[in-house]
Amino acid sequence: MSMTFSIGPAKLWRKIGTAPAPVIVDVRRPEDIEASNGLLPGSAARDPRDAETWTFERSTGPIVIVCEQGHERSQMAAAHLRARGLDACVLEGGYEAWRAATLPMIDRATALRIAPTSPSLWVTRRRPKIDRVACPWLIKRFIDPQARFLFVDPPNVPAVARESGAIPFDIEGVELSHEGERCSFDTMLKLFGLKNEPSLARLALIVRGADTARPDLAAEAVGLHAVSLGLSALSGDDDHGLLRHGFVVYDALFAWLRYAADERHNWPAKAA
Question: Domain Rhodanese, which positions (predicted)?
Answer without folding.
Answer: 18-107
